[in-house]
Amino acid sequence: MATSLRDSYASRIMGNSRFMTIKRLILSLLTLAIIFLAGSALVASWQQPQIQSRLELYQTNLLLRAQELPPENTDQNLVKASKTLLGEKPLEAATKQYLDAQKSAQKNLDKAQNQLAQLAQNSNSVSKPDSQIAPIIDSPRSSQQAQLLKSVAQIKKLIAELNLRLGILQVQQKQTDPAAKTWLNVINSPQDDSLAATATVLTGLWSNPPQLLPDAEVLIQANLEGWFQGRALAQLYELQQRPDAQLALQAEEQAQAEAALLKLAIISSIPAVTGLIGLILLIYLFINRLTKGKESVFAQNGELVWTTPWDWETVWQVFIVGFFLMGQIIVPLIFSALQINPGAASVRVQALYTLATYLFLAFGAVTVLYFSIKKFLPLSPSWFRFKLGGNWVLWGLGGYCAALPLVVVVSLINQQLWQGLGGSNPLLSLVLEGQDKIALGIFFFTAAVAAPLFEEFLFRGFLLPSLTRYFSVWQAILISAFLFAIAHLSLSEVLPLMVLGVVLGFVYTRSRNLLASILLHSLWNSGTLVSLFILGSSST
């Protein structure tokens, strides 16, 4: 009888051992697949433009529109505010900005074309078998070539658009000959027939004698925005001797200039004040740490680790199966099976698609997490703590203020490192370019509510405390912040998001309340979306 029990026990142990071996093998294979997919996405983002470069141009366009404010018919307080925000020479500053953007785009174009040439050379150097059978297509190389060709086309179009605007800046500073040369570049190397036709129209408007071409007004309205469109239309109406149209344009531009000045005040003053408060907080924390040591606010709960009942395999399983497998394979396959293609859809449909994919991912990840830790339930009160009482609001607000100057400094360094490339979250571009209020409301819910709740629950609520079983609290903060940054799959965002992740981890470990890091995360995403919306509205 005893022998039988021993044999049964040994059999169960061997069965469990085999199960664990198979499980680890599957997780290892999935890990390799996820590394390949995530790595491919990160590499692909290397050739994609950063949104930061576009944001700077949008802000420049807003500055140009605001400088059209006529001082004689405007409140003097607005005039003073305008000079403070715009500086003494807004046209010269804008010209430099556009020249820098043009040089950066040309550098990226040269880089992409060189890579294409290298790819073609490598392709030709591969020996082909002497056979009548059709050659096998090199899929990775073909995919890379297609991506590069797409990037080249996008950059060429961007350069043409920049040159259209740069020429208008030049003629406004009486630099007619340089402007004509700038527009000639667009005409001689047309990436888009409509842009080339617009360059021809602009050349005619400022030539001597002027040449008025058919469809001039239609082309200007189609291919120019904001201040640039206003300057071109003003020149056209003057040459056409249309005083009524000129007066209507002047009235519209004055109203838009006042609105632009208000927008500039919002996107400039609020971050500046918040950043100043954050800088003061950082200095206070530094001094407090030096003077009080382990009794300081900085060190509060700094060495207090969580009691973690599961091991590293549970963490591995949750992130590989629940987060990366769901996000990189399962959710895309579900929408592919449903034949949903948001690329050609309206911005409202894209907003719903973004929210739906995020909710599917969150549901799948939380489900995997629950079944992975189910046998360890109930957990101690320190796990996944949502406590309405206490000072979590102060921690969240203070963390947001402190994160702003840190991320701004790192972002400036990051821009120099990536030279305008490295990709960005596609949601940001949709918010910047789409002014549909319902779509923006959906985007706002996704970024300011759904994302903070899910990401803080997973990265700060589960991953960071789990890591304290093997690492110190600070090491756990850094590792979780790095994975948080990598999970966004944009190379240019890794450093800024890692800094943000460190602040989020610091706030959570010190406050021991997920509501604090959720509030910080929500404020960060909300501030980004509001700024994008304001800048995007300046182009209309």
General form: globular
| Percent in strands | under 5%
What is the β-strand count? Answer: 0
pLDDT < 50 stretches: 126-139
The sequence of SSEs as H and E is: HHHHHHHHHHHHHHHHHH
Return Rg in Å.
28 Å
Tell me about the largest β-sheet: none
- The pLDDT mean sits at 78
Q: Cα distance, first to last residue?
A: 86 Å
Verbal overview:
This protein is mainly α. 77% of the residues lie in helices and 0% in strands. It contains 18 helices and no strands.
Topology (SSEs and partners):
Blueprint lengths: L1 H44 L5 H16 L9 H11 L3 H36 L13 H34 L3 H13 L4 H13 L10 H8 L2 H14 L3 H50 L19 H26 L9 H27 L18 H27 L7 H8 L3 H31 L5 H14 L7 H18 L2 H24 L3
Helix pairs in contact: 1-11, 2-4, 2-10, 3-10, 4-5, 5-6, 5-7, 6-7, 7-8, 8-9, 9-10, 10-13, 11-12, 12-15, 13-17, 13-18, 14-18, 15-16, 15-18, 16-17, 17-18
